[in-house]
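Weekly puzzle thread! Below is a chain. First person to post its structure in token form gets bragging rights.
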Amino acid sequence: MGAVNLKLMRVLVVEDEKKTASFIRKALQAAGFAVDVLHHGDEALVAISHTPFDVVVLDIMLPGRDGLSIVQQVRKRGVKTPVLLLTARGEIDEKVEGLNAGADDYLAKPFALEELVARVRALGRRGSESKSLTLELGDLSLNTVTHKVTRGEKTIDLTSREYLLLEFLMRSAGRICDRMAIVEKVWDYDFDPGSNLVDVYIMRLREKIDADFELKLLHTVRGVGYVMKASP
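Winning reply:
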């Protein structure tokens, strides 16, 4: 038998139709979730921004701030909580708009409660998996959800491209990565192997993650490429 997970998944339901909210709450509670319910968009924005829910079920049409606006705002604030949007009309452009705003899934009304529960369970599972995706090498840590990078007690600020480069190298720790492999994975295109683009970014990354530390993690293998390892 595997270990029993005693932590209940916590779900926030934001729905202004109180009867619908009650049905959703009861279905989720019966499925083993801890459920909070709010009926107003402005309250929902505050709650999602400050409380670590596992999943948010969010109606688009709300008094105060609407669901799309809430998703946009919490994503701008760096909140990664999975969001399932509920839409009354089910129009394709509204679904696309919701996903573009940062929602993870959508469900058109009317819907079967069994399907809603299944969608919430899937989003909660996906969210818990992504939360654990922290890459570590020695005292260097990279969180693939928040993109926060630290070495020891020091927080390291990276550009988006430097972050992608570091994540690729850390996922490949212990293996030599040649320049072409780096470009294909980090820049997503082929280019003249004579270019020094990779070397320039490696130099900038090394300055940030290694310069102030005795143990160097990013190593050059002459004529071949680069390797991340926690040994000299």
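Puzzle host: Confirmed. Bonus trivia for everyone else. Confidence is low (pLDDT under 50) at residues 1-6.
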